Request: fold
Amino acid sequence: MENNSDINGLVLTGGFSRRMGKDKASLDFHGKPQFVYLFELLKTVCTKVFLSCRKDQSKQFGEQFPMIFDIHDGIGPMNGLLSFFEKHPRKACLLVACDMPFIDKSALLFLIDNRNSANIATAYTSKKDFPEPLLTIWEPTSYNTLNDSFKKGNFSLRDILQKEDCTILKTKNEKTLLNINKPEELEAIRIALHLPPEKL
Reply:
């Protein structure tokens, strides 16, 4: 096992949740807002944890949560990573998306335990064999690749994982990689988690 004291956690919360119609970061699947759940979960395995968000969201989350503000506009999750590495160029980033309700500690530990820092990232793959960039350890060496892709107008993190040398892991639980973007997907998750209708 590698020394993982150089890994910081980053919770992506900067999206506009347009398709969902409500803020995905504040949905309550585990007895608390999802951004709080993921922040606290990452704190158990990472040296430091930050929320990735837009500057106009700062009052929404509260001063007790360290934040890294987006430095670009309109480029999706890549924004969070580039902003992170601008602030912490020597730290690896364990990136998690706020719209994945089944992430748990075992999923994070499996990534960490199988991390290969010689590659630019360690990621899970889905049953469709697509790497999942939003539950991934991104190494500091990924910054140049990310920045080059940004300058070329390609903002797809998945595209980078498919083209570059990465460690790809099969998830032990397919539900771990499920994310929610639409109200009907949220309803399916609510039923799967046996939550009452008023909960979400």
